[in-house]
Amino acid sequence: MDTGQTVQIICRLIVGTAGAFFAILLWARTRDTAWMLVIIGVITAYVHTVYEVLAIAGISSVNANSAAMSFLSIVLSNLPGVFFIAAFAVIVARKYRAAV
After folding, report:
1. The pLDDT value given to residue 59
2. Average pLDDT over residues 83-88
3. 9-39 pLDDT, tens per residue?
4. Which of 28, 62, 86, 91 lies at a 20 to 30 A Cα distance from 68?
């Protein structure tokens, strides 16, 4: 692992930790469906970052060449986007319903 990759990983972990921390704080204060989906999306993005760091460091319990790792990597990389899409769809549906 070179210096640039190390700096990138550290920055992603710091920003992800701050985002997940504030998302968890907001989670306790909101009951809005759209915001809950955004919060879950932020937390899953952080989980993906941590999983990538563990895989790069070789600490991941899944073998690096196994199909389970590729499936888990695909799911974790796309799950935040799915939650964000769902949150935006809830907001659009809410706005559409209010306009009609």
Report:
1. 81
2. 98
3. 999 999 999 999 999 999 989 889 999 999 9
4. 86
Distances 73 to 6, 9, 35 between C-alpha atoms, Å: 20, 17, 25
What are the residue ranges spanned by the domains of the chain?
3-99
Q: Are residues 49 and 73 in contact, defined by beta-carbon separation less than 8 angstroms?
A: no
Please give the C-alpha separations between residue 25 and each of 22, 29, 35, in angstroms, as whole numbers: 5, 7, 12
Torsion, Cα of 91, 88, 75, 1 (10° steps): -130
> Looking at this protein, which amino acid is placed at residue 77?
S
Q: Give the separation between CA 81 and CA 68, rounded to whole angstroms.
A: 21
pTM: 0.84
